[in-house]
Input
Amino acid sequence: MLLSESDTRTCDWVEDWIWREETAGGLSTSGAPKLCIQLSWNSGANWTAAKSTSTLGTIEQTFTLGDSTDNWGHIWTNAQLSNANFRVRIFVATSTARDFSLDWIMVCVTYK
Output
């Protein structure tokens, strides 16, 4: 659990950091591929609007989506940030015929 459901603080913003590496043989920017991220607060029943990275390159890259003023269009509660409810969905936009390796994703939640 990201925090106790009894915690009285409210979520101010959510930020995702993504580190990815494209697999050998797929090193191309053809089709301007991008990774898209969505967040769910209810085990995947509903999702935020997708945020996308810039066009993926042919080298290892790190992307940050969201910032200190961004709540991803949702007012988050502590219960929604629990292991039971919070989900991250990642998909490739503009090119579904490509393979990618995702090494890690980190979600940072700031409270006020």
Notes: Residues 20-111 form one domain. The chain has one domain: 20-111. Residues 20 and 103 are 6 Å apart (CA to CA).
